[in-house]
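Re: the 773-residue chain
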Amino acid sequence: MPHVLQGLQAVDLTERTAGPLVGMFLADFGAEVVKVERPGGDPARSDPGFAVWNRGKRSVVVDPADPKRRDWLRRLVEGADICLVKDEAALAGFGLDAAALRRANPRLVLVSVPPYAASGAPWPGGEESHGLLGAASGMACRQASLDGDPVEWVMPQYLYVQGVWATACTVAALLERESSGRGQQVTVTGLNAVATAAVSMYTVTADSADPNTAVGLGGRHPTYTRHLAGDGKWLGCGGLGVKFETKVLQALGLSGMLDEPRMGGSVAGLVDPANIDWATARIKEAFLTHDRDHWLRVLTELGIPCGPLLDSQEWLDHPQPQAIGLRTEVQDPERGTVTMPGVPLTLTRTPGRVTGAAPELGAHDAEADSLPRPKPEDASGAPARLAAGPLAGYRIADLGTFVAAPFAGHLLAELGADVVKVEPVDGDPFRATGYTYNRGMRSLALDLQSPDGQETFHRLAATCDAVLHALRPGVSHKLRLDHTSLTAAAPSLVTASLSGYGEGGPLGELPGVDMVIQAMAGMMSRQGGDGEPVSNTLAIIDTTSAAMGALTVILGLYHRARTGEGQRAWYSLVGTATYLQSDAVVRYPGRPAPETGSTDHRGHHPLDGLCRTADGWIRIAAEDPVSVTGQQLAEAGIPLDQGAFAADPTGAVRQALAGLHSEQAVDALAAAGIPAVRARKITEVLRDEDLLREEFVHVRPCEDGPAIIAPGRYATFSRTQRTGPLQVPGAGEHSSALLASAGLAAERVTELLEAGVVREGGPMPQRLAPLYR
């Protein structure tokens, strides 16, 4: 089968993790990716994840001090379709200039992935660092813990989100180029990735205080977390939403909790800050009354998502990821047989595939002269097209509820698409709690259980370019929302479906949710290390799956733009969970053991982790902490006891820094050449004036109180930038207008409204519900 990106050439000038991940996706879907490295090679070459992030690429070495090699590189980029770079300073390090490259090659899509913000990083050197990004963005201080202090997450989750989301934006620019003939510059920063991963954490009212994070290692929601059963084994419980929360209480024999005055007769009382400790203790005790198999059986019979807690090292051997193509093997010239994650999304007509191992350094130097292509001619002749987003002009129907699928719709709307949220006549049951995931769409409230509702949706789908849903295969066929039914009248339609466990395998028919798959895929056990498993406060699998869903849809649309063909695509939460752990689950002979965490993990070395100061915490990121000397620190102004350092370097460093204020410590470490930042609270990040100027968040009116703050810009496009805050629609707010646009007569719309098949609603009050994580 053909590849989606076949015939495209990408030049990858990035290092470490996020940028190479973009190149990985491009290579997986057929682009020729040339990894250009300095003589010393990518610093991440010794990282086990390198084998995954750079698979299927070619490696050519370029010494920036060699004028001939610089000229060769310039010619390579001037003939390429895509150039990946950390930022313009890194481009200049190779003797290249962004404006000159784009003048020479107007079709070039130049993609920058800065490690922090477009204006630069607040740490010396400005190199990519997951730990520094997490601390500076407020996320280290937002993870649930025992003591309420910041936590170091061992999975470099924000870099993985940056990789997949930057790929989606890259392909969106390529799609726009199909009609305009012009490339553009695309920037997806580390903070853009954090905003994507942690969108709900940045969605607050202007007077919100930072929430108490000392709520335990399982988080603040006692039916949506992991629990210890009576046999000493852990399980993930996915009781989220009124229906499932009520069922969990019933299964545990705790329905009487709802009669407690403190609960107010509603399961919403479970996450009331005054009730969290009480509710968690009651539910924890109930799970201890039976073994894990009992609870998995009971919860499954009630339709509540659940699963056993597993180890990340066992994950690729589990029959479910194997059954859906998430495990693959390649022969690596340096590592031998490498077992690694496969492609995490499936296009049935043009599937991606792992085409080879990561290259040895300079493995393709001998063929370098054949790689540069002639400059493409600027044949457009017309002024460059301007548009409110690279997807402007595309219509996408999104039938998803809860988090992952609606948030994919929001991201597509952020890229300029006209996204229609198709929801039940009573509305998405999570639309209040999930306010932030539903911004920017128009709403059609429709009864898809009825034949009239199904026929009505088919009329709408015929006006769409893509349809996105999160229905299991059996349900989509029952509701006539499967690809075959939808394309009977619209053969060029792209359909993308999200499921918990993918299509096929022993778990393919079961419902899956973020929290349960965190447990099953080994994320919780890896973070907890030898202590209790730790649940991620972020809905990290859901939000990353939203970016994965956007990429899936855009790849399908790109293929259609080139060929006229629609196709069916699918992706899964387990695919995303596997992708997020690529560095941990990849295996080969002799690989070092993956890093694991601990209870309230701060890192494994004070000079590469979180460290307490006199007035808070800082995150330090020494490249090689063991090689840092006491004299080096003392000369930089850190009051270090040299004798104590010789006896116990770790204790001496912690003691010295504990006596300094955070700013003093950061400045002194910078003088020693060691990057560090303060671990900020979210309230401080939201008021950072530099970030406000870059539209990190948008401030919008609230119906009944202080303004609402929510993530603003997720990416920047030099020519097709959409701007301004996106509102959440009311359920059915746009029903009549959307049906009219699908060709339904006014009389027919009235009939459907009177029959209750369609609901016409008003605007949604713009207000926030209580936190659930």
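The mean pLDDT is 96.
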